[in-house]
Amino acid sequence: MPIYHKQGNIPPKRHTQFRRPDGELYSEQLFGTIGFDGMSSLLYHHNRPTMVKDIIKSTDVSPKIAMEKHIRSLKLVSFKTEPKDDFLEAREPLLVNNDVHIGVAAPKLSMTEYFYKNADADEMLFIHKGSGVLRTIFGKIPFEYGDYLIIPRGVIYQIDFDSTENRIFYAESFTPIYTPKRYRNWFGQLLEHSPYCERDYKLPQDLETYTDMDEHLMKVKKQGVLHEMVYEGNPFDVVGWDGYNYPYGFSIHNFEPITGRIHQPPPVHQTFETSAFVICSFVPRLYDYHPKSIPAPYNHSNIDSDEVLYYVDGDFMSRNGVAPGNISLHPAGIPHGPHPGAVERSIGQQGSEELAVMIDTFKPLMVTENAMKLDDGDYYKSWLNS
Ligand SMILES: [Fe+2]
């Protein structure tokens, strides 16, 4: 997040003496995700952040692959996944490769018994249903329907839900999730042609600081294994921090669509990027206004990327028979395009109320056993005339 932000109390000069009311030094921690080279923050802990007391359990949570190599378009009915009480147990990885794990979760309960951090992956949580507060060592981020929550790897967090009705579409990215570079100037400021600007971000606020020395359970995901560790002292013991590396939120409803006289290509919907995939937002917008325009997209041969679409709301104009919570996978190697009738249907229409999140990966995705349980079976034939 290339915006300088701070919360709480910090010393006027970095790496200098900064003392607690009882005279002891606070513990300073540099927190970055690209060695000492990328964006980072400096945090000041009441206690040492290194006090591991015990490692009590390690559980393999790596995805189980059902189809490693394939060329079948899929439609997954993700709302068929059973809601589960626990935030982590509710996660169902569906489409995965070495760069990203894409999945859904329907957690019912807030995370109160433990703290969590993903040591491997930046997390993108897209909130389809539910609301609450993401509580982190950097502060709180209230969230609601339509929010993307971007959580850099290593951020310790808990999540509070307002109700038990929650649906999340998520991506765990093994390279950092950034805003698109072409929308930033050489200082990192978002440019005038960017579909959103700095005012649209939900930055961490209301820093929580607890100084108890009780034992606390921490679950750390690393290399596909969930390690359960006991820490001495409360992980939320930060009295202040500043810098550029921290979690934030952004609402899909604040994405300003880019439109034109003729059909605009998918990159106009791009919202985030990594070195291995992009995340795009399809939002309600006016259609193309050339008198002979065709608002539906042309067929395109995605020979080099897999396309995942998560349908959120509204009628998706280029597809037949998709509903909220459906996920389509259009794999690399074969072209895809509008469904039969969709091109003619789109002509003369003024606009769309469609809302969807798209992830295009540059390497093929494998299909998990979880995904096969949601597969509708014959979506790949849905471009035939009858
Ligand atoms: Fe496409």
Automatic annotation (TrEMBL):
- Tell me which Gene3D superfamilies the record gives: Jelly Rolls
Needed cofactors, names only, are: Fe cation
Give all residue intervals belonging to the Homogentisate 1,2-dioxygenase C-terminal domain. 276-383
Q: Which UniProt keywords apply?
A: Dioxygenase, Iron, Metal-binding, Oxidoreductase
One Pfam family name is HgmA_C
Q: Where is the Homogentisate 1,2-dioxygenase N-terminal domain?
A: 100-250
Q: Which family does it belong to?
A: Belongs to the homogentisate dioxygenase family.
Q: What is this protein called?
A: Homogentisate 1,2-dioxygenase
State the organism of origin. Maribacter cobaltidurans
